[in-house]
Amino acid sequence: MSLTVPEKGWFKAPTGSERLWIGLALAWCMVLTLMMPFWHLRGKQNSTGEAYRVKPADFAARVARFVDANKVGELAGITVVAPAPGTDIYLQAQMWRWYPVLKLKKDQTYRLHVSSLDLQHSLSLQPMNMNFQILPGYDHVLTVTPTMAGEYSIICNEFCGIGHHMMVGRIIVEE
Amino acid sequence: MSTIAIAGTPQASEPPANVAGNHPAGAVRKCDTTGLPVCKTAERYVKLNAVMAVVFLLVGGVSALLLGLTRWPSVHLLPVDWFYRILTAHGLNMLIFWIIFMEVAILYFVGTTLLNSRLASKALAFTSFAMMLTGALLVNAMVFTGRADVMMTSYVPLRAHPGFYLGVILFAVGTLIGVINFFATVYIAKRDHTYEGSVPLVAFGAIAAAIIAVVTLLHGAIVMIPAFLWSLDLIGQPDAAWYRLVWWGLGHQSQQINVAAMVSVWYFLAHITTGAKPLNQAVCRGAFVLYILFINIASAHHLLVDPGVGATWKIWNTSYAMYLAVLASMIHGFTVPASVELAMRKKGFDKGLFGWLFAAPWRNPGFSAFFLSLVIFGFLGGITGVTLGTQQINIIAHNTLRIPGHFHTTVVGGTSLAFMGLCYYVVPLVFRREYAWRGLVRVQPYVFAAGITLMALAMSFAGSYGVPRRHWDIEFSGAPFSPGFDAAAHFMMGLVGVGAVVAFIGLLVFILLTVHAVFLGRSNEGRAMTAW
Fold first, then answer.
1. Are the C-beta atoms of B395 and A45 separated by less than 8 Å?
2. Could you state, in order of their start, the residue ranges of all structural domains in chain A?
3. DSSP secondary-structure letter at B527?
4. CA B365 from chain center: how many Å?
5. Nearest Cβ partner of B307 from A45, A126, A135?
6. pLDDT band, residue B322 (cuts 50/70/90)
7. Which residue among A58, B274, B276, B430 is the one 20 to 30 A from A152 at the CA level?
């Protein structure tokens, strides 16, 4: 029994249905093990973790240069930029806003650089519900190809202080 | 070898077990119910740790109610600053203080009673308890005075008052001392030959939990000491990605202490409520070994959408390692109910496929809490956990309410519920007091299980609509844009509130009845406990 010392000779191979169950469970674990790399090669959406070290001040300077070069307007007090397809684009996370508003073209590919100037944040694209962790000191690069036109929200879903719930940004995708 | 030995011939140099144990005179009593030896020193510290566990459970429970009532959109009770403050308090009091105080109590009980030994050191037990209590009080003082609004994870560069990190460190070191005292007890039991052969299965599980605890607490020291020094401005800010990597070596592995302890409690309760015996001890023990070996690298699944760690690293660590730890849980998920089935069939409840299950002692709160814990942990917790730990699925789940939806079925519906079931035996056997209002006690596990299941499922569904965790307002008042979640998500958030209220009622019933039993319950000294 479980509370007393086991009888001598307890160390023996499983038999019967217990053996069958362990076999099935192990086989299932192997299926799971193979599925993740398989889907990494086969699936379209993966987190590769591509990132480069960057000082927050340097990242802010790159964002400022990017905004100056591609500015097209303003939305809810936030600068809107329309970068050329195929280029490197920037998104800055900061207590408590996403900057700037990005206007992208459908079916074009961009390299999106995201980093934080202060705390940890998390980029949550709605309503697609895709989520990526954003850290200060790390330029997180996401290769993005929007496939549907429309207006999308970016919310922050890593706690970043009292104004956390107000940290909402926007990505606009045009035909 | 034993087949050719002639009876009475000494086979090995191993002397017979010292059945009287190694207790000094007067330091042991025989349990009036089970006949097991109870070390009086250990008993005192089992009581102290268990009482503190329940006190912090109450703090965490009241916090849980307030959080549930805030995330229920039509109630939205707390103001924003208090929401995050209470959320920080809830995580720490529940996941750390309630569970770890309880686990130290379990270790002392297992090391002494099941191994028929005295507790190795009274001084270490006192030091451990004093440090843990000081640490827990310090952390709570910091949190409730608004000096540590950093969540349980305290991700740098979020910064708390140095007292917060100091409190966590004190608690962790205190726990480590308790674990060392347990290992010392296991050692002297072996040295003094207080048992013969291998340790009992429940003790084996507890040793596995204690080994994982040591590795966990070392990660805690590696990450918390720099954070403490940084909060004092003695060193620069620790790297955010490094902090997350090492913190999850603490954060995830500590959940595996809970799993190993909970599974040991399952074996304990299955035996004490139905007389179940494991089918094959080698299988059960092997599964515990898998936990020890493979759970550390599985912590990587918390970083599946992080920058700085590559896809190969993520996939290797989360898949290969994780599934062997999953295999361990799948094995226990078979062997535990199978042992109950065999025990029930042997008693004559042999009708059909599930006759043994219908005839099980469902009115015994020790059994119902154990079995509900097994079902909630195994089906809801296990399946959601494996799903969320997949690279691609994690993209649509990271930091949404699907994550707390998952871990409330493992840690609350699983571990906490199993520990409640354990208390229904600890109070009569260790405190030697009987529960009053026994009808209410019988209902409690069902109420708590129903509430927590409703809440966790609603959280998971809301999360799959994108509703974030750790978030005060999904109306996003004051934000430049509004994402406008689906109406179904708002409905689910209402169910989160309802589930939280029901679970809180179950929790409150447990706490009130337990506190009443401990302080005012009828004594059963000198006779067996009243059977459930």
1. yes
2. 12-43, 51-174
3. S
4. 18
5. A135
6. confident
7. A58
pLDDT tens, position by position, A131-161: 999 999 999 999 999 999 999 999 999 999 9
- Smallest Cα distance from A148 to chain B, Å: 17
Query: By CB neighbour count within 10 A (0-12 exposed, 13-18 middle, 19+ buried), where does B47 fall?
Result: middle
Helix (H) or strand (E) holding A61: helix A56-70
Residue B419: domain span: 361-369+377-532
Mean pLDDT of the B144-167 span: 96
Q: Quick one: pLDDT at residue B14? A: 60
Distance set, CA B231 to CA B88, B155, B224, B490 (Å): 18, 13, 10, 39
Task: List the alpha helices (DSSP H) in B193-299.
Answer: 201-231, 240-274, 281-298
Predicted pLDDT at B13: 53
How far is C-alpha B66 from the chain's CA centre?
22
**Chain B: residue nearest A43 by CA?**
B392
User: Best interface-test mutation with A: which of B399, B400, B403 has the largest number of A CBs within 10 A?
Assistant: B399
- Do residue A2 and residue B200 have CB atoms under 8 angstroms apart? yes
Whether A158 sits inside 8 A of B157 (CB atoms) is no
Strands A71-75 and A78-81: antiparallel
3 state SS for B167-219: HHHHHHHHHHHHHHHHHHHHHHHHHCCCCCCCCCHHHHHHHHHHHHHHHHHHH
pLDDT digits (tens, 9 = 90+) for B26-48: 899 999 998 899 999 999 999 99
The pLDDT score that the predictor gives to residue B37 is 92
Q: Do B114 and A3 touch (CB under 8 A)?
A: yes
> What's the fold here for domain A51-174?
Immunoglobulin-like (2.60.40)
CB of B428 closer than 8 Å to CB of B366: no
- Spatial strand order in the sheet of A97-99: A51-53, A138-144, A110-116, A88-94, A97-99
Which residues, including other chains, have CB under 8 Å from residue A162's CB and lie 6 or more apart? B80, B81, B84, B149
How near does any CA of chain B get to the CA of A73, in Å?
A: 16
Question: Can you read off the two tokens belonging to residue B96?
Answer: 């750390």
The answer to whether the beta carbons of residues B207 and B199 sit under 8 Å apart is yes
Q: How many CB pairs under 8 A join A and B?
A: 264
Closest-CA residue in chain B for A140? Answer: B307
Whether the pLDDT of residue B7 is over 80: the answer is no
CA-nearest of B53, B169, B64, B44 to B100 is: B53
Specify the 3-state DSSP secondary structure of A162. coil
> Least CB-CB distance to A36: which of B156, B241, B390?
B390
Contact check, Cβ <8 Å, A139/B307: yes
Q: B124 to chain A nearest CA, in Å?
A: 26
pLDDT interval class at B477 (50, 70, 90): very high
Q: Report how far residue B497's alpha carbon sits from residue B454's, in angstroms, rounded to the nearest whole number.
A: 10
pLDDT on residue B173: 95
Any idea what DSSP says for residue B118?
-
Q: Report residue B273 CA to chain centroid gap.
A: 21
User: B268 at the A interface (CB within 8 A)?
Assistant: yes
ipTM > 0.90, yes or no = yes
Contact call for A37 and B315, based on CB within 8 A: yes
Domain total for chain B?
Answer: 1
Residue B211 within a domain: no
DSSP code at position B400:
B
Per-window interface: A 56-75 vs B, CB < 8 A: none
Task: Give B364 or B484, the one with higher predicted confidence.
Answer: B364
Residues of chain B found within 8 Å of residue A30, distances taken between Cβ atoms:
323
